[in-house]
Write a structure and sequence with these properties.
With 372 residues, the chain is α/β, with parallel strands linked by helices. It has helices spanning 2-7, 19-36, 38-46, 57-61, 68-73, 104-119, 145-153, 177-187, 200-212, 241-252, 362-370; strands at residues 66-67, 86-89, 99-102, 129-136, 159-169, 172-175, 194-198, 224-227, 259-265, 268-273, 280-281, 287-291, 305-310, 321-331, 344-350, 360-361. The strands form 3 sheets. The chain has a 7-stranded mixed beta sheet with strand order 6-5-4-7-8-9-10. β4, α7 (145-153) and β5 (159-169) form a beta-alpha-beta unit. The chain is globular and about 65 Å long.
């Protein structure tokens, strides 16, 4: 895909002059998905949308989006799954999982994206680290994207060790924070940095346990906390970022400048990495629309609505425009003050998919007709 290659080769991950190439890459991808995915073609035909008519960002606002819930119930592929390099699933905390495939070209585009986004936060280093992974230890039965992402994040530096919070035993995963605690105490005496990676909920639970036991350590210089995967089923226990940062400083001696958060979804595998002010600026590889929860009209900056994510990243699956169940607000990037001027996304909550009046509207009816 010519225009995808050009877009994902952009040196500045937050360049403000890529709308034209983004539109061309989206059109190129949409035309491909239309030709090679029968289900996607029926959706677009059913909503009277012609990929050939994509000429501007305004046209992309009209591109029919697919609710993430659809991917959890149906597999949509534009190449035979057997020809994909890897397949990844969502974590499935609700009991159902999305499955997305990646061709070699998709993975190459993703690699270039990860390198350019991550280097801005100083994640690459030749200095070896001890890794504490608050996530799943890889197992052949586990194909979740969050597991692959967490493991991949341990490749930013040479790994001296990897200790996983969730290990596979007797046919299921179990959490062992005591083992993690002992590893943290041990590595606090090392001369090499420690990097935490994974779910913020488990990271917080460990730090809270340490504080309650009055266990406070001073981790080596340049130790970092990398957060990804969200709070999932522990959303009722989620704490404000300031509380999290204060606790990290208190029990681990890690400043908030060394706490880095990622945002993403298996149905939208673009890497969003927070800036030094902890905001998720939109990289060139994607665009974000905020839509009114009732009318689905596109809203301007500073208005709360449903988060609609767009990217031409994948050839294997039609994920050009997906509607999440996240509520968010887009802000002018200049308000941040970090130096990145692209808009930034603030996630403020979630809404039940049953409450979304989706214009994939005809989605329910179209799916019946498609018999999928």
């Amino acid at each position: 895909m010519k225009y995808r290659r050009i877009l994902f080769s952009t040196e500045n991950a937050y360049s403000q002059d890529t709308d034209k190439i983004f539109v061309k890459a989206m059109k190129e991808n949409c035309e491909y998905q239309y030709r090679h995915c029968a289900e996607y073609r029926k959706m677009l035909d059913g909503m009277k949308f012609n990929p050939n008519n994509i000429e501007s960002m305004k046209d992309l606002e009209k591109l029919p989006f697919i609710p993430t819930l659809l991917f959890k119930k149906h597999k949509l592929y534009s190449v035979p799954p057997s020809r994909t390099a890897i397949r990844a699933t969502s974590s499935g905390t609700t009991g159902i999982k999305s499955e997305i495939g990646f061709c070699i070209g998709d993975l190459y585009a993703g690699l270039k994206m990860v390198i350019r986004v991550s280097k801005l936060r100083g994640l690459f280093s030749p200095v070896p680290c001890h890794y504490i992974v608050f996530g799943y230890k890889p197992h052949r039965s586990n194909k979740t994207a969050v597991t692959k992402t967490a493991l991949g994040a341990t490749l930013f530096t040479p790994a001296l060790s990897r200790t996983f919070a969730l290990t596979y035993q007797n046919g299921k995963y179990s959490l062992n924070l005591e083992n993690i605690l002992q590893a943290v105490i041990k590595h606090s005496h090392s001369r090499f940095p420690v990097r935490f990676m994974g779910f913020p909920s488990y990271t917080y639970f460990l730090m809270k346990m340490m504080d309650e036991r009055n266990i406070h350590v001073k981790l080596p210089k340049n130790s970092k906390i990398l957060l990804g995967g969200g709070w999932k089923q522990f959303y009722t226990e989620q704490v404000d970022k300031d509380i999290f940062y204060e606790l990290a400083k208190k029990v681990l001696d890690i400043d908030d400048s060394n706490i880095i958060e990622f945002f993403g979804a298996v149905e939208h595998p673009v890497l969003y990495c927070d800036c030094k002010n902890h905001h998720f600026h939109i990289p060139v590889y994607s665009r974000v629309l905020i839509r009114d929860a009732d009318t689905l009209e596109v809203l301007g900056n500073e208005k709360e609505g449903l988060v609609n994510l767009m990217t031409p990243m994948l050839k294997a699956c039609p994920i050009l425009s997906v509607m999440t169940d996240d509520l968010g607000i887009l802000h002018d990037g200049k308000q941040c003050g970090c130096g990145i001027e692209s808009p930034y996304l603030e996630i403020i909550g979630r809404i039940g998919m049953k409450d979304i009046k989706t214009c994939a509207a005809g989605a329910a009816e179209l799916l019946k007709e498609m018999k999928i």
